[in-house]
Design goal:
Blueprint (H helix, E strand, L loop, with lengths): L5 H10 L5 H15 L4 E4 L3 E4 L3 E8 L2 E6 L9 H8 L2
Antiparallel strand pairs: 1-2, 2-3, 3-4
Length: 88
Amino acid sequence: MSAKDPSKEITNYIKDLDEPARSICTKLRAIILKAVPDIKEDWKWGPNYNYNGMVCGVGRFQKTCSTAFLQRQRNERRPQALQLRDGK
């Protein structure tokens, strides 16, 4: 992991956001962590989440934010991560 404490880094990043980006990123973080209990928070170009590789990243743009999911082959052994990406 690139940050010494990625979870703390992400908490500080979200705390410094303006609304409504702060609320959106807080909710996205909670959804991601609940959907895949073994997912790990990391900091690489900003907040991102890993489960046997990077699953998604979150970035802010002025007063909103976006989530980018990485495209993976379906035969990879990451069923929970794929479910999160596919919304199942």
